[in-house]
Design brief:
The chain is of the alpha/beta class and 164 residues long. It has a single domain, classed as Rossmann fold (3-Layer(aba) Sandwich), CATH 3.40.50.620. The chain contains six helices and seven strands; from the N terminus they run βββαβααβαβααβ. The strands form two sheets. It has a five-stranded parallel β-sheet with strand order 5-4-3-6-7, with helices on both faces. A two-stranded antiparallel sheet has the order 1-2. Strand 3, helix 1 and strand 4 form a beta-alpha-beta unit. The termini are far apart. The N terminus is likely disordered.
Length: 164
Amino acid sequence: MAESTGGKVDLYRHCGDLLVAYNKILVAIDLGKTSSSVIGKAADLAVAGRSELHVLHAVEPLSITYGGDIPMDFSSIQDEIYQQATDQLATFCSKIDIPAEQRHLVMGRPEVEIANMAEALGVDLIVVGSHERYGLAVLLGSTTDGVLHSAGCDVLAVKVDTKN
């Protein structure tokens, strides 16, 4: 059994040989082909630790993506993207039995919205996917880097294979 952690021992649960400190986990997915492996790792942790698992997808506004470079109204396109994301998230989460109240779809910069949702939900672990970056992408940063620097809790970056 674990040694005393200064009164925090009640935060830990003993699961077989695994000492787990996470009560609530937020997994952020992009709804792409690597999402299954990322949520798989998060689900494994949640099951092992009997943790509550929340799933988040952040839709980045087109105005952020394209800035003011294109003088047009993106609202109808943005609404369509949001509706498609809503449907995809529902389909994805229903396959792995995530209850509707633990599914979250937000609009905004993913690295900001992931940290904000984690704080709002009181999660103690965020799980995100991470892949190798090349060229200009290395200079521009990544969602994972943004979450690592802005989150108020632990972050697990799951290495994903983007080649397959």
